[in-house]
């Protein structure tokens, strides 16, 4: 459902958040390795997230990426919007160009419900809440 950019972006944000909660900054290479993403691709994603103030980049020998405490309340929908725009909420489930309520594909009405549920979940889920769930459940980001 998400683009690779968005998948890696969400993984990166969650990894950085996890490290930030322990007051650690993490390097680009560590992030790339931990989320199993090509380093150049990860750099471009983190550049977008830094530009949009989701993550903070600190330069220098003790630098790295971090997420400030107040940014932990950022909703996942904001991250998806930064990386993928709103295409996930409006696209056809089969990828057809002409698909709407007037000219639906075979999955249209079922997919509308799925998209609405996804949008609701993303708009109501913060980085902090996912971080709490990860801690409780012992999730691993690397796949």
Automatic annotation (TrEMBL):
Pfam families the UniProt entry points to: Rrf2
Taxonomic superkingdom: Bacteria
InterPro entries given in the database record: Tscrpt_reg_Rrf2, WH-like_DNA-bd_sf, WH_DNA-bd_sf
Entry's Gene Ontology cellular component terms: cytosol
GO molecular function: DNA-binding transcription factor activity
NCBIfam families reported in the protein's UniProt record: rrf2_super
PANTHER family on file: HTH-TYPE TRANSCRIPTIONAL REGULATOR AQ_268-RELATED, WINGED HELIX-TURN-HELIX TRANSCRIPTIONAL REGULATOR, RRF2 FAMILY
Protein name: Transcriptional regulator
Taxonomic path: Bacteria, Pseudomonadati, Bacteroidota, Flavobacteriia, Flavobacteriales
